[in-house]
Design brief:
heterodimer; A: Rossmann fold; Rossmann fold; six-stranded mixed beta sheet; 12 helices; 16 strands; 19% strand; B: alpha/beta
């Protein structure tokens, strides 16, 4: 019997971390992920888990500790957010190229500039090319489930994994959750038993060489192949998890897509808000749908493009700006995936929710209305749009009902 | 095992007959102090003991582990420039956990090597964290007093007046303006069980005994090894040993240790030589001997004397400098 409880997303991921019994956790506090190492330290203090917690002096050292521990043959985990993830940047590449299965709970928060503690996806989206698998969650339940699956995926693929959730929205929001029993989780993740590791006395190992030009490119190609090969592993792991819990996960979730005219593609907790807008429009007999992307790395290019091709116009929602003058990171990859298909939909980008800016059911409702304009007129207009921005100098600015706030 | 100075007797002949743990054929320059420092430290390991060696990005790293070859007989990990302290922390923590869980039976030692760039400068935070947390490891700085891997740029370990490529001597520049940072004292302030300054000098006894103590003292230990660089310091390869000796005999690089809080000189020059004897053998200080630049030598001598006297006070009073 699974265990019913109420937990914040941070507690849920810390609980999952405890159940997978890591050997080493190296972490440094940063809002909003701080609670994860706090909960975990409590578990250790109370003898609930025998992990060694290394209270490092920075996130750079947190990732370095995880690298050293993982290379030495230990199951290593960490948690971070925002600037902490940015500070790990250099090591993200080092860890993935060394093919070390470190699992990291990322509690998404805006990157500083200006400083802001609230949610958007600029931190992990900035790390999208670092060779880490990235799995996002809508709810506390999903982040818990994803973390347990993440351990299996990482260790099978020998690739590091980020398990992402939205800062404050799920990390601090308490909701009902179904936990898996400890023994079932143990059995599901198994023991970490690498073939080679630093502490294997009969066969010393050297990690992190100078990769001269005749070898460097092969290393990168192998990483790319490993990312490609992780697709079936992610799928099989989800299937196995479903057998255990009856909770079904794919690369993405389709909501009301089968007969939809127009649809949204969205990542993370905003999918819950978007579903509400879908339900409302469905009640008005509007055929709208939604795709919630769970796995961003590897990018499920082919299945996602097929799902998007079910509609005539799709809004691709980015909770991160990439300052490329051609839309956010999800937009660029999702739109790219449509290129080779005939009968592809119009694809419109909406940048939303930066630095914790609210997105409401009404906002999604309006976006669906925009999509219907395109649906009927065949005129996509400007495909690079903002939602919820407040500045009259921008064509997509909205009036938030305040006076004189354009001067802010 | 633990180190016992009463029963241990150094024998150079026996030491050099041990199997090498840093194989020949690596790509370090002739007359480089880094390889000599590494071999000197690794020789202090008991032959049956295993080690995991961490390296900060450095000349040493790019010269000894170029895929698909490694010069190390032991397990080895390189990650980045500034994190050797933290990476070693991770390896050592994994060892403790896996040993506790019965997955590992052997005894391992953990040794990190970084240059002065990776230790005095960019890696100082990571090193400080590792020392403060108390990991059972030895961090070895091979100090060649500049960023040699990128081409002799100044570091905080570069001494005043040295000609480095980012503090070049010119008509408006006397070389580096600032004095050398005293990293050994900074690490002493971490109150770790054992730390020392040494250099490959004489019959290597000083380096060997300190490495042995560092390796076999439980908890964090730190060795700061002056390791001259023929390219950066501009000397002939065969002068290496002489330059190390002069660094010690001029008190530019005093040999001392702090063993469980007790400051001790491990070598006192019979006759303290003038600093010119050390400076004049190196191209990086050549401009100090030009007419009109006498003040540079005078000020260097004053500084070295003041530092030496501070150290003597610490040794004589048993108190921190």
């Amino acid at each position: 019997m699974s265990i019913r409880d109420r937990m914040s997303g941070n507690e849920a991921v810390a609980y999952a971390m405890k159940q997978v019994i890591p050997d080493v956790m190296g972490a440094f506090p940063i809002t909003p992920s701080t609670e994860i190492p706090q909960y975990f330290s409590d578990y250790i203090a109370n003898g609930e888990v025998d992990t060694e917690f290394v209270a490092v002096e920075s996130e750079h050292s947190a990732m370095s500790v995880c690298m050293g521990a993982s290379a030495a043959g230990a199951r290593a985990v960490t948690a971070t957010s925002s600037a902490g993830l940015a500070y790990m940047w250099e090591l993200l590449y080092v860890v993935s190229s060394a093919r070390l299965p470190v699992t990291m709970a990322v509690v998404n928060r805006a990157l500083t500039g200006p400083i802001n503690i609230n949610n958007d996806h600029s931190d992990s989206m900035g790390a999208r090319d670092s060779g880490w698998i990235q799995i996002y969650a809508e709810t506390n339940q999903e982040v818990y489930d994803n973390f347990i699956q993440g351990i299996v995926i990482a260790e099978k693929c020998r690739l590091p994994v980020m398990i992402c959730q939205d800062g404050f929205i799920t990390s601090h929001g308490v909701s009902n959750i179904e936990l898996v029993e400890d023994d079932k989780v143990s059995k599901f993740v198994g023991e970490y038993a690498p073939e080679n590791y630093l502490l294997k006395h009969e066969n010393p190992l050297a990690v992190g060489p100078y990769g001269v030009s005749p070898y460097y490119m092969e290393v990168k190609r192998q990483q790319a192949q490993a990312m490609k090969d992780s697709m079936p592993v992610i799928k099989q792991t989800a299937e196995k998890f479903c057998e255990m819990t009856d909770r079904d996960y794919g690369f993405f979730e389709e909501y009301m897509m089968d007969d939809a005219d127009v649809a949204l593609v969205v990542i993370g907790s905003s999918a819950g808000t978007a579903k509400e807008a879908v339900d409302r429009l469905r009640a008005e007999n509007k055929k709208v749908g939604m795709i919630k992307l769970r796995v961003f790395r590897p990018f499920p290019r082919i299945p996602l493009s097929r799902a998007m091709c079910k509609v005539k116009a799709v809004a691709i929602m980015d909770k991160a700006e990439s300052f490329s003058n051609s839309g956010g990171p999800l937009f660029n990859e999702a739109r790219n995936s449509l290129y080779d298909l005939s009968g592809k939909p119009y694809a419109i980008n909406y940048i939303y929710g930066l630095g914790g800016r609210d997105i409401t059911v009404e906002d999604f409702y309006d976006i669906f209305q925009d999509l219907y304009v395109i649906y009927y007129t065949d005129d996509p207009g400007d495909v690079y749009r903002y939602v919820g921005v407040r500045d009259s100098r921008f064509p997509d600015a909205v009036d938030l009902g305040r006076e004189n706030d354009n001067d802010i | 095992m633990t180190y016992n100075s009463e029963t241990y007797k150094y024998d150079l002949k026996r030491e050099v007959e041990k199997d090498e743990r840093l194989a020949g054929g690596h790509r370090l320059c002739a007359g480089c102090g880094a390889g000599i420092a590494v071999r000197g430290v690794l020789r202090a390991l008991e032959p049956g003991d295993k080690a995991v060696i961490t390296n900060a990005t450095s000349c040493l790293e790019v010269s000894t582990f170029m895929y698909p070859y490694t010069a190390y007989e032991d397990s080895y990990i390189h990650s980045a420039f500034e994190n050797a302290g933290a990476v070693t922390s991770g390896v050592e923590t994994a060892y403790r956990v896996l040993k506790k869980k019965g997955k590992i039976k052997d005894n391992f030692k953990f040794i990190a090597f970084g240059g002065d760039g990776g230790t005095y400068d960019i890696g100082l935070q990571s090193l400080s964290g590792a020392m403060e947390r108390g990991h059972d490891m030895v961090y070895v700085c091979y100090d060649n007093e500049a960023y040699m891997n990128t081409g002799i740029q100044r570091s905080s370990a570069t001494p005043r007046f040295a000609d480095a490529t980012t503090t070049p001597v010119g008509s408006c520049s006397p070389g580096k303006i600032q004095n050398k940072k005293n990293l050994t004292e900074i690490i002493a302030a971490h109150n770790i069980p054992y730390l020392a300054q040494t250099t490959p000098f004489g019959n290597f006894r000083d380096l060997h005994e300190k490495a042995r103590k560092a390796l076999y003292t439980e908890g964090p230990a730190f060795l700061n090894i002056l390791a001259p660089c023929p390219r950066g310091w501009r000397y002939e390869a065969e002068d290496f040993a002489e330059i190390c000796r002069l660094a010690v005999d001029t008190c530019v690089w005093p040999l001392y240790e702090v063993d469980h809080g007790k400051w001790k000189l491990t070598y006192e020059p019979k006759k303290k030589l003038p600093v010119e004897d050390f400076l004049s053998r190196q191209g990086r200080f050549r401009h100090m001997f030009r007419k009109g630049n006498e003040w540079m030598i005078e000020e260097t001598q004053q500084y070295i004397d003041a530092q030496w006297n501070r150290l003597l006070r610490a040794v004589n009073t048993g108190k921190d400098v």
